[in-house]
Each structure stands twice: as C-alpha cells, then as structure tokens.
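Readers of this paper often ask what the protein records in our data store actually look like. Nothing more is needed to write down the fold, since each code stands for a local backbone conformation. Below, we set out a record of this kind in full and without editing:
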Amino acid sequence: MGEHTPAPSPGRSYYGFVLYLLGWAGIVIYLVWALVPHSYLATLGLTYVPQPYWALALPSVVIMLLVVFVFFIYPAINFMLAPPPNDMRTITDSKAIKKEDYQATGAYDVPPVYDLPISQVCRVLYR
C-alpha cells in the first residue's frame, strides 16, 4: 500500500463486519431470552434456557465485579508496584544526568537535558 489511509485492511474489515453482526445477534438473542415468555420459547422447541431472573442478575454481577476491580483491585495493584514515597527511586534513577557531570566542549554547545538537584527544586518552589 503506497498511500497510508485510516481505513482498515480488507482482512480486518471482514473480521470487523462479522463481529458487528455477532454483536447484534447477541443483543437480539439476549432480548428474546429476557422478554419473551418461556411458554412461547417452549413451543418453538427451546426448552433448555436459563430463567429470566438471570437476564438481570448476570449483568448486575458483571457490572459490580467491574466496579470492584476498577475502584479497589486495580489501585491496590498499582500501590503494590509503586515504590514507597520515602524511597530514593521516586526522586532519581540510574539514568539521571547531573549538572556537574556535563562538560562543555565548545562555547556554543547546547547543554543536554539534565536533572536538577532536589534541594535546588525545593529552594525555588518553597523559598
């Protein structure tokens, strides 16, 4: 492809269309299961379907699990992976370039990006 376009490739578009159709089919099947009385479904030969109670209970449980994950489990994982606030890794790391380590070779050299010492930052911020 010589020209870059935001359109998906033909293979991806086929998968997307199939997923679109399966999504709508799933919604229609869910609504039929939730709203049509079981006696009508039994006349069609569909006798082994879950109770309509689960049409409301299952999405409620899934939403509740999502809320618990987003507000409790995910932040807890992040807190466990982050270093404590009094650790030096929150201030600097092994890749830090200090201003003292830079040696200018020419008069018009542009200095590289470097880390400011935390004492200087505190002096400027909090005077």
Notes: The helical segments are 10-35, 38-43, 53-81, 118-126. The mean pLDDT is 87. The radius of gyration is 30 Å.
